[in-house]
Structure formats: structure tokens, C-alpha cells
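Protocol step 4 of 5: obtain the predicted structure for the target chain.
Materials: sequence only (see below). No template structures provided, no constraints applied. The aim of this step is simply to have a reference model before the mutagenesis design in step 5. Sequence pasted as it appears in the construct record:
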Amino acid sequence: MYEYKAKLVKIVEAGTLNLEIDLGFRLKLTRQVKLSGCECPSRGTKDGRRISIQVRKWFEEYGNEVYIRSSKPDPQGRYWCNLQWADGQELCLNSLLLGLDGVKRIPKRR
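Step 4 output (C-alpha cells):
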């Protein structure tokens, strides 16, 4: 498990974000990540748009600086992570999403 400081670049859809990840030693990498444990409707649906708007509001309220915890990519090359705001708030985006209608909990990957 790895932990990095990151900054939001773009909300692709509710469960997929483009982040600029700080690797340390002035090295930064922009990568698309998926949020672990939640399956969000696609942005082309009414629920997907509604949930994406809510995610955007949370970033406006809590800021774009976050911490992510991730492990190695899955076989398709996707990085799955848990995301928490960097301002000291004990808020995890993954948990907030699971509280919304239309978002399903997906089983833990092995």
C-alpha cells in the first residue's frame, strides 16, 4: 500500500478522477485513478451526472489537495485508490459516495 499527496486535475466521472500525484523529490505524475469499493453510474446517465455534480461540490467545499492510498495497478493497468482530503478533515470520498443513491458497493479486490 502506498500513500501520496495529490491534487485534483479533472473529474472524469464520479468514481474516476485525474490527479497530479506528488511522488516526492519534485517529481509529479498525472494519472487517472478509480475509487476503490464503489461503482458509480456512468456520466451519460441522469444518476451519473447528479453524482458527478455532488463530487464537484465536495471538491469546491473541501479543496483540491488530497491524499490517496493505492497499491499496484490491476491487470488492466488501472489504479484503484482511497481518497481523503489533505486539510485534516477525516472525510473519505469513497465513504461519502457510498452514502448516495445510485452508488453500489463493490466487493474488495483480491
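Step 4 remarks: The first strand starts at residue 2 and ends at 13. The mean pLDDT is 87.
Proceed to step 5.
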